[in-house]
Amino acid sequence: MGVQTMDMKAPMGARLHIFHDVPSLADAFARRLVELASGRTREQGVFTLALTGGETPGPFYRRLADPEFRSVTPWDCVKIFFGDERSVGPESPRSNFKLAWETWLEYSPIPRESIFRLRGEAASLAEAAEEYSQILEREVPGRALGFPSLDLILLGLGPDGHIASLFPDTAALNETLRTVVANEVPQQDTWRLTFTFPLINAAREVWFLVTESRKADVVARALGYHPEGAVLPAALVHPVGGNVHWWLDRGAASALPEPQLKENIG
Ligand code: 6PG
Fold first, then answer.
1. For a Cys staple, 225 with which of 81, 122, 220, 237, CB 3.0–4.6 Å?
2. Which of 70-74, 156-160, 257-261 has the lowest mean pLDDT?
3. What is the atom index within ligand 1 of the atom nearest the CA of 156?
4. For residue 20, is pLDDT > 80?
5. In angstroms, what is the span from residue 261 Cα to ligand 1's centroid?
């Protein structure tokens, strides 16, 4: 069982939560998320949450689907958004929406009209991006730095340090005005819809979900333990709310300095 350490900080101030295995990590994540959602809905009547895609979040979303969490949070006050989407429809096995729907949202009491899908199937991804920017303006009450301020954005981490669909050396990394764009990703010979840094860094909190030892080196670089990591997209996440949390299993944390690892793992 891991020891959750809220006071442990990495060089750039990120808080690390390291657990021995994915089930204990996903459980701690779910408990902290419902606690945050309950607090924010008590405080402001709504909780705005953006989900990450990829393979990693499956066990985390499945834990949230457990009936244990059904009654502990006013889910009818929660609004769900998506940080990025592939250029596919919701039925595609590559769809980030499909992953979240089938592992959690389908079984959750969150009102369907409060789940805002990115239309990856759109003939014009640029129009779909603009449409989603307007949805965020309408549905997210919080503001910071002139942009909608989401209460929490979940992010994964690619082996190249990408977050959402902000891949190294792609145009969207330099976006300073728009909150959602269509981004060409030559590395994958595709286009994607993605949040941009203005939107990500306007959030109150950003949580990274990273598992598996294959990610250990990029985690250590993104957390600032190696100078060359400073240019990774993940290292450019500095939300105005100042809260960046990394939820890591032992494998993903295995390249962190030993003392840090010892203190975080029970
Ligand atoms: C996506 C994600 C992407 C993902 C990373 C890690 O659309 O794929 O948003 O940013 O989080 O690529 O993916 P895995 O969790 O599959 O390793």
1. 220
2. 257-261
3. 11
4. yes
5. 24
Ligand 1 centre from 96 Cα, in Å? 9
For the segment 28-46, the average pLDDT, to the nearest whole number, is 97
pLDDT of residue 126: 98
pLDDT at res. 240: 87
Mutate to test the pocket of ligand 1, among 22, 25, 52, 98 (most ligand atoms within 8 A of CB): 52
Please give the backbone phi and psi of residue 48, each rounded to the nearest 5 degrees, phi first: -105, 120
* Atom of ligand 1 minimally distant from the CA of 57: 15
| CA distances in angstroms from 64 to 32, 104, 186, 206, 207, listed in the order given | 11, 7, 34, 18, 15
CA–centroid distance, 45 to ligand 1, in Å, is 30
With CA atoms as reference, report the closest residue to 218 among 232, 205, 208, 204: 232
Residue 15 burial by Cβ neighbours in a 10 Å radius (0-12, 13-18, 19+): middle
- Pick the closest to residue 247 from 71, 36, 32 (CA basis): 32
